[in-house]
Amino acid sequence: MATIWLRRSRTIAQSLKHKYGLTGILGLEGCNSFQNLHASSPSSTNHDRHLLVSTYKYSTTIVSDKRLKSTVALKHLDSTAFASDSDDEQALDFPGGMVSYTSEMQFISESQEKRIPCYRVLDDNGEIINGSDLELVSKEVAVKMYNDMVTLQMMDNIFYEAQRQGRISFYLTSMGEEAISIASAAALSTEDYILPQYREPGVLLWRGFTIQEFANQLFGNKADYGKGRQMPIHYGSNKLNYITISSPIATQLPQAVGVAYSLKMDKKDACVVTYTGDGGTSEGDFHAALNFAAVTDAPVVFICRNNGWAISTNVSEQFRSDGVVVKGQAYGVRSIRVDGNDALAVYSAIHSARKTAISEERPVLVEALTYRVGHHSTSDDSTKYRPVDEIEYWKSARNPVNRFRNWVESNGWWSDTEETELRSSLKKQLLQAIQAAEKTEKPPVSDLFSDVYDVTPSNLREQENQLRETINKYPQDYPSDVPV
Amino acid sequence: MATATTFITRGRRVVSSISRRRFSSSCQNAIQQQQQEKSQPGGGKSLNLYSAINQALHIALETDSRAYVFGEDVSFGGVFRCTTGLADRFGKSRVFNTPLCEQKARKFHIKFCFMQGIVGFGIGLAAMGNRAIAEIQFADYIFPAFDQIVNEAAKFRYRSGNQFNCGGLTIRAPYGAVGHGGHYHSQSPEAFFCHVPGIKVVIPRSPRQAKGLLLSCIRDPNPVVFFEPKWLYRLSVEEVPEDDYMLPLSEAEVIREGSDITLVGWGAQLSIMEQACIDAEKSPTLVALQEGISCELIDLKTLIPWDKETVEVSVKKTGRLLISHEAPVTGGFGAEIAASILDRCFLRLEAPVARVCGLDTPFPLVFEPFYMPTKNKILDAIKSTVNY
């Protein structure tokens, strides 16, 4: 009987998932954050929103009715699947360890009964929740964290505008995700290596990369460490142990394992932290990296910024699992889910993950739940595929910078005056940096040919000579701001 | 790889299929003699190609404590025995084990199922100043790692403005025909990698070459893809100096001098070409009635960045060029050589550049003898080029 019930209830649950997408799943799994989304957002006349809300309500009623039965069935399934007392006294001596036998045919459930909870420390108003596990943050660190989060916001606003004015070719903001990069960076040592994706300039900022250095990269001038070879936002700094960004998704993850293995072999008191998004977890590289990290016992912390959207692909279309955090266990990797918009929770989780990675020589996976408030990049208009009020809700009600500010202010470490001063000073610095970067000349043509190899081979020398002849002949064909 | 072990157990079949193709030992001897005449370190024991590779890896690990060897099944010695003894000598943290002797070293059961993982890991390791020597069990299985090689390893230095590099990375992979490998144990994918600025592609032709070139690749400050002719792993035997020596990259070598036609090749194909050269010398033609055709044979060794000058000098002397490789003719690296030499030697050429290569089909099992650029196909092309 139990199995029949199980099948029936799972079928219903599955069909609901397919029918109602994300809201169906959330209704089924009972996630709080989206209940808050609809409960706390101000009433709106937006048609889309009404649709969303009614779908949500509908799915909860249906699901809550069936949920009892499905839960009973699932409990039965889970408890037997992992039963410690087996039917058979014998065990299978299989490579990798003993496996007990059972005569009951039980499939492991595709999902857990409850979604993995999300660790947080600050409530929505920025007050520390009583009894929280947390790492204490000094005034100095907290104020710098807040300063850098504001700097990141201002940078994003002004550089984004510069792109809109056609002064730089491309830009990509960290809006809504400021807490993850800044707070994780704050919890690390500068000896730790960073293998970033592209939405973590906050780590560089924390480590002392200047606004001028950011601007130089965006403008691809001769002061850009990348010598103007890559699109804007592909920062890198040898000095700051921040390995240069590349556009392909998730390729940095297996590389991070190699870097971590090297740190371990050198017995360094350091680990590697590497970042990816929810979309990146669908790449083979993500899975290769987790598996490699586990088997090589590499001190690496994988941070997945699950921001709900991989360009236009919603997480409901990205995976059927309970997000990313559950994938760690399959590879034997310790994992935690964190509220990515709670800077203190991110700080505490990464502080602890780092300690684990180094002292226990093992990888850790951190899934930070957040939201991409900005468009994917300047080449994207996200209002075409997601409701405006969803963006607005995360931008205002769940804003990580505001939440952290409330906490910093409540400690008496920050004031409105300081806020105004900081913002006006940053604006001035940013505009000056843009002007200076714009005026700085581009890298010379010789930089086109250098660094392909350690020494320029003859075919490239030949091509350089040919190109120079062509430039002399047709100077009008080439940009005048690139020195020949 | 389930089929990997068949290459060990079917050793006899390899030899028989090769002799069917009239791969004569005299040809091997001819090449060996030629090599010994060159100004290379002398002496040493008689070794086959996999043992020479094994020696190079021992030296690489011995001379640099920051060198690592890893890949599928490398710890027990590899399916081709290239990594024999390394894990015992240098420890399982520097030579990563795989699950064939699981009771011994449970902690290091590393089964690399993700090729992108092997190369990605190697890039990270190399970026930290290590010598990362990665093995892909067959070149046919390198493609999942294509993204890591093309978009990551090759651009690591350039994209960071030389702030970072992964020059310590060497990717070894057995390539080419073996007599019974079918689609997935026979391919020659070198041309794909020759289209990627930032990496080097190197292919040795013999044990002595393999050892010296591999040591150069491992120590070269650029990422290198090193394809090993698996056909020759056991078959090719020559004296290999026991000491630590390196052969220069991006330098081609004239392994047989001649005056009527230049032949360019690399890896296992050179022995077939050598055989064709010998037969051509016995073939009187319109041009050389008495002496037969005098062929100059060049081993390119490094495919990118390649030594255009050596080929150019030779073709200016002979006035004719033939290129031969196992990979399909269309888009093969022979096309690049042909175009470059045509550009440099147009007025000196007395005949169109000939290419004798694999057919434009997937690598076939039963039809392998038909697919291959065999000695007689080359001989015919030599004759028709000289008689053009």
Descriptive key words:
heterodimer, A: 484 residues, alpha/beta, Rossmann fold, 3 domains, two-stranded antiparallel sheet, 17 helices, globular, disordered N terminus, B: 388 residues, six-stranded mixed beta sheet, five-stranded mixed beta sheet, 16 helices, 13 strands, 38% helix, 16% strand
Describe this structure in words.
The complex is a heterodimer of chains A (484) and B (388). With 484 residues, chain A is an alpha/beta fold. Chain A has helices at 2-29, 32-40, 47-81, 139-164, 178-186, 201-207, 211-219, 252-265, 284-295, 315-318, 327-330, 343-359, 388-396, 400-410, 416-439, 446-449, 458-473; strands spanning 91-94, 97-100, 193-195, 272-277, 300-306, 309-310, 313-314, 334-339, 364-369. Chain B folds into 2 domains: 25-240, Thiamin diphosphate (ThDP)-binding fold, Pyr/PP domains (Rossmann fold, 3-Layer(aba) Sandwich), CATH 3.40.50; 253-386, 3-Layer(aba) Sandwich (Rossmann fold). Chain B contains 16 helices and 13 strands. Chain B has helices at residues 6-9, 11-20, 25-37, 49-63, 86-90, 115-127, 146-153, 156-159, 190-193, 207-219, 232-235, 269-281, 308-318, 333-345, 368-371, 375-386; strands spanning 45-48, 67-71, 131-135, 169-175, 200-202, 224-229, 237-240, 253-256, 261-265, 295-299, 302-304, 321-328, 354-358. Chain B starts with 5 loop residues before the first helix and ends with a helix. The interface between A and B is large, with 51 and 55 residues.
